[in-house]
Amino acid sequence: MPVLLAGFEISLMIYVAGFLKGVVDMYFEQALERVLKHEGGYSHHPQDPGGETRWGISAAVARRHGYRGAMQDLELELAKRIYRQDYWQPLACAELPPGLAFQLFDAGVNHGPGTAMRVLQQCAGVAVDGLWGPLTRAAVLAEPAFELMIMMNVARMERYIALPGFVHFGRGWIARLVQNMRYAREDACLNY
Q1: 78-101 burial, b if ≥16 CB within 10 A, otherwise e?
Q2: Crossing angle of helices 2-39/166-187, nearest 10°?
Q3: Which segments constitute the Peptidoglycan binding domain (predicted)?
Q4: What is the pLDDT of residue 190?
Q5: Would strands 53-54 and 57-58 be described as parallel, antiparallel, or unpaired?
Q6: Alpha carbon distances (Å) from 7 to 17, 18, 20, 101, 188
Q7: What is the pLDDT, as a whole number, of residue 13?
Q8: Residue 149 to residues 24, 82, 95, 183, Cα–Cα distance (Å)
Q9: 113 near 162, Cβ under 8 Å?
Q10: pLDDT of residue 148
Q11: Would you say domain 2-39+91-191 falls under CATH 1.20.141?
């Protein structure tokens, strides 16, 4: 009987792993949909230090991923792969409650992953090094997710106000954070 039980346990582990991957993928898709609402389609504002973007992906990032076409033609599927590979996965969003995962992902897209992680670490009261590790994980998961979501948006607002580009982009940045706080309230039930 132990062999059958071992086979059952392995099958159950494979099933659970597949189920969890599906849940994580669902949260990624939801977070990405929100980010894309913030980022819009094509943009090439002369005051934007990010330069030319499509789906929120800068030309420099697209080129690092092998894209050689006109930015207006960047396909959404490539943008999704870039978002997952360069932002969602390095920020360990799959390890976080869904609402907090979105907030960190959005911060990563807008400020860069290292800065986003430093903001999260600051809000969680852990050593700020910009890296996801066991101490950051423990500190973040020990805090109420809703509080961290709100604190991150406040910290981001303070950051935006201090940037020279606030004159040109401040209204949009603040609107983004206001919407993110609405998402935080909406997501609060998913995090407890």
Answers
A1: bbbebbbebbbebbbbbebbbbbb
A2: 140
A3: 116-178
A4: 63
A5: antiparallel
A6: 15, 16, 20, 34, 38
A7: 44
A8: 19, 24, 15, 9
A9: no
A10: 97
A11: yes
> Comparing C-alpha atoms, which of 124, 97, 107, 121 is closest to residue 159?
107
pLDDT at 97: 92
Beta strands across the sheet bearing 53-54: 42-43, 53-54, 57-58
SS3 call for 58: strand
Domain boundaries, the chain: 2-39+91-191, 40-89
Q: What confidence score (pLDDT) does residue 124 get?
A: 98
What are phi and psi for residue 126, nearest 5 degrees?
A: -115, 160
DSSP β-ladder status, 42-43 and 53-54:
antiparallel
> Is the separation of the CB atoms in 57 and 66 below 8 Å?
no
d(CA 13, CA 110): 37
Residue 176, pLDDT score? 97
Please name which of 40, 31, 52, 41 lies closest in space to residue 107, comparing C-alpha atoms.
Answer: 31
Q: Are 151 and 166 in contact (CB under 8 A)?
A: no
Q: Give pLDDT, residue 62.
A: 97
